[in-house]
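Note to self: the last two entries modelled the partners one at a time, which told us nothing about the interface. This time every component goes in together.
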Amino acid sequence: ELKVEQNPLFLSMQEGKNYTIYCNYSTTSDRLYWYRQDPGKSLESLFVLLSNGAVKQEGRLMASLDTKARLSTLHITAAVHDLSATYFCAVDAAETSGSRLTFGEGTQLTVNP
Amino acid sequence: NAGVMQNPRHLVRRRGQEARLRCSPMKGHSHVYWYRQLPEEGLKFMVYLQKENIIDESGMPKERFSAEFPKEGPSILRIQQVVRGDSAAYFCASSPRPDTQYFGPGTRLTVL
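The predicted structure of the combined assembly is written out below.
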């Protein structure tokens, strides 16, 4: 059974600081996704990572993928309050490609002024 | 192109009643996925459908839950004889092919 683990699960940081969220998964993957969810809202797609060494950046967020280590990171640079949300990574396992996403538990990020 | 639409957005049912959740995929999308999110948890896959076919229902509870995606009309997730443990947010996602999934706003089900 595919397992996806994120850490930390809770992250409280000050504005202007940098931090990294980690996502480990247990099996070969075709794709890895990062989503953002605000309280009571749906999921907003942030990044899709398709290959080993892939790096994507959007604003203060940068995501990378190491398929050999089965690890993805979401790096936050100079955090601002608007980034407060829950961030999920999700894996599309190779053996069930296109069939379902397996989500991590989520990292609840709070950025304090 | 409107996004994935779900209705109702909020649904309250008493124990033993039926809940019917609807999902209209984005135009041109023939792949529909249902996920459930319990409070403070990530999303858990339930079922994957294409038009008139259930492709993968491995995440669906064996009893009381069913899903369909008819040739015409929205996909429906039906929960019979609801219990308190069914209270959750149910998200539908769609895609034009088996890759990036676009999520709807969700239906928040409360069972009293």
